[in-house]
Every structure is written in structure tokens, then in C-alpha cells.
């Protein structure tokens, strides 16, 4: 059975070539389906599932409500119940969240080797997925945790895009500059984004803007953290100054 599941942005599920997300039983059904997919490689206890579906305080009838939801989901997708509930998807199933984690890992590995061409595609795959909100429109503690993990993927992908752009040079410098600007906005206290953007700007001939960015970094760290730029940032600043 072919399975393609999108959890980032709008939830979309295709099983056996058929779109089934519109058959999920309401908000709780979507949450249960997504939770089982995210944790598909291991059984999940009923207590864990109830905590995910009813965070804060589990209602007295939660166990029977969970049984009803699982029963409805089994009409759509195979779910084993022994020893604990576990969704059954093909080994080759595509889940966009998993693909993003795998892609950023490949991109970071290739970037560390300086294999810019090998890092180019996976970095963009990871960035494309991580730029969307996990289960957009829904909220729960476990959803927020996944969103934080996805934000880390986005940051890692942006760093790879910037490194690749600097490494390849030429037209790719524009991508590096855009990625660097996105990093400084997304994580304004994370120094790596500033250093990447400084390098990209300098490589593109914008020495003055690169130096001004260092001043912005220094001011931000001092005002927000009472800290100073790292040795690496100071050395980069000196190199750009010439």
C-alpha cells in the first residue's frame, strides 16, 4: 500500500492512492492520526495517547472515547492494538516531517564535507517542509514540541543553504544572502546566522553592509545578553576590514 502523509501545513493523507484525510473523525481524530504517524516506529500506550488528546486533565470517559476514535481510524488505516496501539504503514511510506529531518541531516553532512552540490537539494527539501507549520491551525503541548523541533530543522536548513551559496558563489550568493537574512530574523540571538550573512555579503561585494551587520550583532548581544561576539565573529570582522 502506498502511503504519503503531509503533517506540515494542512494535513493531507493518501493511502493506496486515495485521499483519506477528509474521513478522519474530527479534530481529535486528526490529532490521534498525526500522533500515531509521528510515533509510528513504536507502540504508544493508551495513557500516552489520552495525555496527548486531552492535555492538562484527562476526562473520566477518555478511555472509552479513545476506543471509539481508534475504532473509527481502523476503518481508514491499519492500527495494531497489541501490546499497545501502533499505526501500520509501509516501510517506504512518505511522511513529510520524517523527510525533513532526514534531508537536513544529509545536507548538514554534505556541508561539513564541503560537498556543496550534494548539499544543495536536501537543504532545500528540508527548508521547504520546515517553513510550513506542523498541524497548522491545531494546538496541543505535543504539537508545540514538534513545532520547536521543526524550527530547528528550518534553522539548520537555512544554514546549509547559506553555506552552499557561499561555497558555490556566483548566482547562488543571492540564496546565501536571503538565507542569512532569514536566519538573523528567525534567531536574532544566534550568532551563526550573522556570520554567514557577513560572509555572503562580503563575497558579493557588499563589504560595508557586512561590517554594519557586525555592529548590529555586537549591539544585540550586549543589549539582550550582556555578551560580546565570539572569537570567530571578531576574526571574521577583522578579515572583512582587511
Automatic annotation (TrEMBL):
Organism listed in the record: Gaiella occulta
Keyword entries, A-Z: DNA-binding, Transcription, Transcription regulation
Pfam families, per the entry: BTAD (PF03704)
High-level lineage: Bacteria, Bacillati, Actinomycetota, Thermoleophilia, Gaiellales
Coiled-coil ranges per UniProt: none
Residue ranges occupied by any Bacterial transcriptional activator domain in the UniProt entry: 95-241
One Gene Ontology biological process: phosphorelay signal transduction system
Name the UniProt record assigns to this protein: DNA-binding transcriptional activator of the SARP family
Residues making up the signal peptide according to the UniProt record: none
